[in-house]
Design goal:
Elements: H1 12-25, H2 30-43, H3 47-58, H4 67-80, H5 84-97, H6 102-114, H7 118-133, H8 144-157, H9 163-171, H10 178-181, H11 186-189, H12 195-216, E1 222-226, H13 229-238, H14 249-265, E2 271-275, H15 278-287, H16 297-307, E3 312-313
Parallel strand pairs: 1-2
Antiparallel strand pairs: 2-3
Length: 338
């Protein structure tokens, strides 16, 4: 299913079942696939089954990439079908854990907002912004919803702008200002009998909808395959014929960066990087009835990983860690053009 498919054309229950089956085939991607399946179940109105999926993930013995996000989604879902006390307890647990990923903060703050807990939502957004953006030169893209959500809540509370609101204004890119988008009076204009007011509001809504659709329907990423050092060593020990593709790890990393820059300079949009693992690659080769030593499988493997949502956008946002895993900022690592 394309992410921009009209809702009326989607059988959410069937899509959830398909994603569960896919998760069984690709255990290394089960977390992302089961989260998507749970989202479809929520859209289908089957919230108890969605909760069961969240519980299945949280009870997994393999460990999760982002357990705080799973808990936040579970809390939001629980509150929607009457389990307020449990939802509140989970939300407090997420806040106490102070995750470094902005997504769980956004989920729990918006859950509070949707149930008219505006003060608590404001405190949650503010706590996250202070934790993740204090002394950060430029807010990374994933943190923008925190700034926008906090701005929206403060407009509803009638609070005057502060330095975080000003920062939200600087990263906002739509032609309509945040103050207009978050104006509590806008909802009243939809019930107006004045044609000019209605037309103005329709224009605003079209601008917002266009931005959301653009974000959801980005072209399929052109993804380059990246092997971490330990994985590449294991790969070449098992399949030495691939040494011709990967003379050294340093050469491999330099080749990735130069290939992406060349694609970018030629005008190719939406570039990305996917990280491979030897077990995953061997499973892919088996599914293709081929040997992992066949170098022609490598670009197909990269495309498959990207299709499963494993691509990370390139270049990283300013100030973000380099894609190579060095731990240094991209601008000080492979993003250094000196």
């Amino acid at each position: 299913m394309r992410p921009d498919s009209p809702a009326e054309n989607v059988d959410h229950t069937a899509e959830a079942a398909r994603l569960e089956r896919t998760a069984g085939l690709y255990p290394e991607d089960s977390e992302a696939l089961l989260l998507r399946a749970a989202a479809h179940l929520e859209l289908a109105g089957d919230r108890p089954t969605a909760t069961a999926l969240y519980d299945r993930l949280l009870s997994s013995t393999d460990g999760l990439d982002n357990p705080h996000l799973v808990r936040a989604l579970k809390a939001s879902n629980l509150w929607e079908y009457g389990h307020e006390a449990e939802a509140r307890a989970i939300i407090e647990g997420v806040r106490a854990a102070s995750p470094r990923d902005p997504a769980p903060w956004v989920i729990v703050a918006e859950a509070l907002e949707s149930h008219d807990e505006l003060e608590a939502a404001h405190d949650t957004f503010t706590e996250a912004v202070r934790l993740l953006l204090t002394d950060v030169p430029e807010p990374p893209q994933p943190t923008h919803p925190l700034l926008f959500g906090r701005h929206r809540i403060r407009r509803m509370l009638g609070t005057s702008h502060d330095e975080w609101d000003a920062l939200a204004d600087t990263v906002h890119s739509l032609p309509i200002t945040l103050d207009e988008l978050h104006d509590p009076k806008r909802v009243w204009s939809l019930g107006s009998e004045n044609p000019a007011e209605l037309e103005a509001e329709i224009t605003r809504l079209r601008a917002e909808l266009g931005a959301y659709r653009e974000a959801l329907s980005r072209p399929f990423p052109v993804a380059i395959l990246h092997w971490p050092a330990t994985e590449l060593t294991e790969l070449l020990e098992a399949y030495p014929t691939l040494t011709s593709e990967y003379p050294s790890h340093e050469t491999h990393l330099a080749t990735i960066e130069s290939a992406l820059r060349e694609l970018a300079s030629s005008g190719t949009p939406n570039l990305g990087i996917v990280t491979g693992t030897v077990p995953s690659y061997e499973a892919f080769a088996a599914s293709e009835l081929s040997s992992p030593s066949d170098a022609t499988l490598l670009p197909q493997y990269a495309t498959t990983l990207a299709a499963r949502g494993r691509a990370v956008a390139w270049p990283p946002q300013q100030g973000s860690p380099c894609w190579c895993g060095s731990g240094r900022a991209y601008g000080e690592c492979h993003g250094n053009t000196a």
